[in-house]
Specification:
The protein is built from five helices and five strands. By secondary structure, the protein is an alpha/beta fold. Helix 1 packs antiparallel against helix 2.
């Protein structure tokens, strides 16, 4: 958990530095730009010193064993009275940025799990942005936990949010 928190702090600061470099390109002095570029390099080194993205994902797997997104999803679906009756059709579910297969173990969910760097054979290795248009409006539930913050470009974050919403059926539920 400590390693995951450390990665999140590094990643978030790195995103802020990159955003500052991009947004302030015309307004900042050469010295300010140099300071930001040096900090960016330090953060990238810190990420790599901690094992890089691969180690971050491994730490996330351990973290999700203790703090399960699946519990929140199931509890919320129960509160919303969206769980099908016994023997009913399972809820079509898309999990973008799947770290584990906990949602796939839920008997009332039919899950398509995606991740850029799949850590499990049951998780499809696919960039969410490459998801085919034919899947739009296909899912009753969409789950995207701790992913949008990793998308560096603000435009791409917006695009991801829009695409997540477009995956949902009209009465669908989005977990972000």
């Amino acid at each position: 958990r400590k390693l995951t928190s450390s990665f999140h702090l590094i990643k978030n600061e790195l995103l802020m530095v990159e955003r500052s470099l991009k947004d302030g390109e015309r307004k900042m002095t050469k010295k300010e730009k140099t300071v930001l570029l040096e900090r960016e390099a330090e953060l990238i080194r810190a990420m790599e010193d901690n094992g890089g993205v691969e180690r971050y994902q491994q730490a996330s797997v351990v973290s999700t064993e203790h703090f399960k997104t699946s519990r929140i999803v199931i509890r919320t679906l129960q509160e919303l009275k969206k769980i099908p009756t016994k023997g009913g059709l399972r809820l079509s579910t898309l999990e973008a940025g799947a770290i584990n297969i906990q949602l796939q173990a839920c008997p009332f969910l039919q899950v398509r799990a995606l991740d850029l760097n799949s850590q499990h054979a049951k998780i499809e290795e696919l960039d969410f942005f490459a998801l085919e248009d034919s899947s739009m409006f296909s899912f009753q539930v969409v789950v995207c936990s701790m992913v949008v913050n990793c998308v560096q470009c603000p435009y791409k974050r917006f695009e991801m949010l829009a695409r997540l919403a477009l995956q949902l059926q009209p009465d669908g539920t989005l977990f972000l």
